[in-house]
Amino acid sequence: MAPKHQAPRGTRDLLPADTALWRWAEDAARGVLGRYGFGELRTPLFEDYELFARTSGESSDVVQKEMYRFKDLGDRDLALRPEFTAGVLRAYLEQGLGGRSRVHRLWSTGPVFRYGRPQKGRYRQFHQLNCELIGSPAPGADAEMITLFVDLYEAWGFSDLTVLVNSVGQPASRRAYGERLREWLAPVHDRLSADSKARLTTNPLRVLDTKDTGDHALFAELGNMPRLLDVLDADDRAHWDAVLAGLEAAGVKYEIDHGLVRGLDYYTRTAFEVHDRSLGAQSALGGGGRYDGLVEMLGGPPTPGVGFAIGLDRALLVIEERGFKAPAGDSVCIVAMDGTRAAATALARELRREFAVECDVESRGFGAQMKAAGKSGARFLVIMGEEEWQRGEVALKDSKSGTQETLAPSALAEALRVKTRATGETA
Ligand code: AMP
Fold first, then answer.
1. Ligand 1 site, residue 311, Cβ cutoff 6 A
2. Which CATH architecture fits 16-170+233-321?
């Protein structure tokens, strides 16, 4: 019988086998973020619609086509967050963080929502790991953020990433560049996709973001695409050179991508992304950039910032496809007999304060429990035979070393501690 309800289109259930990998990835990321001095910020899943409309830019796809916008019962105009930065900066201003210290390093994670067309690596509810460094205009801040960005992927086992970088300048240089793009595209204007034609009037840079293969063929036909880097003013140019020098100093491999403009309007100067070809059309694993005008746009004082978002679903797809399995901790399986079942329940509760413990709850026979223990993958087996129990003993079998010993139940926890510590793993 088909179930009556299905998860909404574009959403997924993550089962325990999946979440084990997610937990591992999140824990690895938390470690890196802590070592870089980042603190975790949790903001609401929804905010005023206007916050996203104002910051993302009215012409962006996110605002025009992809927002989960709704009215609540109090007739408020709200939206599920399509990205983190706007909410993080709203919280930064509302909580007065700027007055407490000059530079803030904040990270967040959780679901984000975009009403796109679902396909492999593209969901309507997906998850991002988001980092912001707020308060520093220095190129060193951009370089540090790009280095952190790469180090997060490296912590997940991505060893050969090349980060793509570009400078999108300031609004004035972008306008000048937009003009150059329009002139460049004029000869093929009529053959561009409808989306690109519309973008050419509202926000010409976004034409470079097109996914339309016909558009890309036209770009190739024209050749000699104008470059944003050629229209930067002296300050932007100096910033850009210093960012690249910072990356070189840190030993981060990068490639300059002149077509990289990012989807949202608020970026200034540095923009960056990483891709993984194994993902096909949805190859972007993550990206970010500097957004020096954004806090002012939200009514705050001039405050520079640089940040990025990593798409966790896509990163985990790649990790999974490479056959990676989350390392399992050492667990314990207790096997009891009729006369020791009650004692096994108490022992399991005791050991579960520290270790992962399985213990039969169905009063199955000894043979069935042994079989289940074999299947469970538990490293340790605690066998509670009736006679041994009477003598004040249990047997502890370690499948890793292949040893078996007899010891007092009260010595069990310490023996497990020593063995798990010796192999550097925790239960
Ligand atoms: P963006 O803010 O659009 O650059 O998104 C940052 C990252 O989030 C992207 O590089 C993707 O890895 C991921 N991402 C964006 N949209 C989706 C989506 N619909 N489904 C899954 N991941 C996404």
1. yes
2. 2-Layer Sandwich (3.30)
